[in-house]
Amino acid sequence: MTSLALALLLSAAPADPVFRDGDRVVFLGDSITVLHTWTRLVEVAVRLRHPEWTLTFINAGIGGNTAEDGLARLDVDVLSHEPTVVFLNFGMNDASFPEGSSGAAFEKNMTALLQALASAQVRRVVWLDTTPYDTSVGTGNQLNRRRVARIAELLEFTKKTAAERNLPLVLANDAVTRAIASWKAAKRTENLIPDRIHPGPILHGVMAAEALAATGFDVTPARVKVTVKDGAARVEGRDAGVAWDGEAPLRLDLAGVKAPLPFVLPLADAKLLDSKSLVSLASLTVSVAGLAPKRRYVVRAGTLEVGRFTGAQLSAGVDLMQTAPPRVAPGPERADLAICDATTGNPWANDVSCLFNLLFGKDQLRITMRHEKTRGLPDAVPGYLERLSSLQREWLVAVEADVHTRVRAVLARPHELVFEPEAAADAGVTRGALP
């Protein structure tokens, strides 16, 4: 089988989606994983699309690790959590080790790691291949060129082995490489891999989108159909209609529709990254049948204006997220949770920022409680270390439950969509409450 055929086979989403209710998901990898960015975005997506599920997500990445290190700490950092799903991402550090050293033995170590996970009966293992080492900045020396060549060898092994074992493979290298090339072709000057090794936040959005697609997650655009007829507007799939005279602002509450997921950039910029999954996830298209074709309407998602469209354009469908900002990144001190109570802006963009910041706090808590931070504590008072470990476990269980509760509460709030005839909007028609 050719490399291209392997890539096409592995890029297809599995018939049986990876994520299920009750999953305990562990991400095992190096510094690219422990950045808590692509992993957190995957968690955001699954939780927002499935708020009814009870889930646990654990980041077990450690900077500088190789597959050998991951194998060595598998029992403590992964299997102790009794995972049902494990994501693997190694190779960047393995490719820099001297040939013949144990750290360079990626093929041997990954084979052992996969076998150990199989023996532990982990239900699904998802493999992210090694992201590219960027030599476009500065002059590449012999060591850098060797690293690039070695990564190419790892990619071939990964594709072959994932196919043999029937593992979902996230073609992160291809996706990141395409994104960088497309970004540069658009004359964008921001360096997406600032230090040659670690993809920046924008590329983590690409990686998350590709990971979701490869695991059978629904990456098709969210769509809402509205029909205006006999003095009422009805949202497809809902019994109750909203009375409308065609002149006053029409207000629809779309709480509960499939969540769009604007990860890292405004939609126009996201389209420059050559990732169909990233753009598709970020969209929420609404179509309205029954409006006067030539009349224009101001459309707002929450309080944010989407644009002014004719009835014909609305019948064809418009994307409510086209003017929405991407998620708001947490500050350096503490994640700002005020966004979770926001009453202005695009409500779906607010949802993503709220959950991202909630998970930022959760991840910071887990980082402070990692076993290597407590294993060296002196046992000055017999039994206190055991009590500390018990308290940590209880705390983390409570935090996971709290996140679950908050997600459902956020999604249950009004997500208002407003259509206002342009003449009425320009005349300053009073805006009332939700019907």
Brief write-up:
This protein is an alpha/beta fold.
What does this structure look like?
The chain is of the alpha/beta class. It is 41% helix and 16% strand. The protein contains 16 helices and 14 strands. Helix 3 (38-49) packs across helix 13 and helix 13 packs antiparallel against helix 15 (384-412). The N and C termini lie far apart (59 Å). The protein folds into 2 domains: 3-214, Rossmann fold, CATH 3.40.50.1110; 220-435, no CATH class. The chain is globular. A 5-stranded parallel beta sheet has the order 2-1-3-4-5. It has a 5-stranded mixed beta sheet with strand order 8-7-6-10-13.
What's the gyration radius in Å?
24 Å
Number of strands: 14
- Cα separation of the termini: 59 Å
Q: How much helical structure, as a percent, in the residues?
A: 40-55%
Continuous helix count = 16
| Chain-averaged pLDDT | 90
Largest sheet: 5 strands, parallel
Fraction in beta strands: 15-25%
Structural class: alpha/beta
Topology order in helix (H) and strand (E) letters: HEHHEHHEHEHEHHEEEEHHEEEHEHHHEH
Give the strand line-up of the largest sheet. 2-1-3-4-5
The tally of domains stands at 2
Instruction: Please mark out the parts with pLDDT under 50 across 5 or more consecutive residues, or reply none.
Output: 1-11, 429-435
What's the shape? Answer: globular
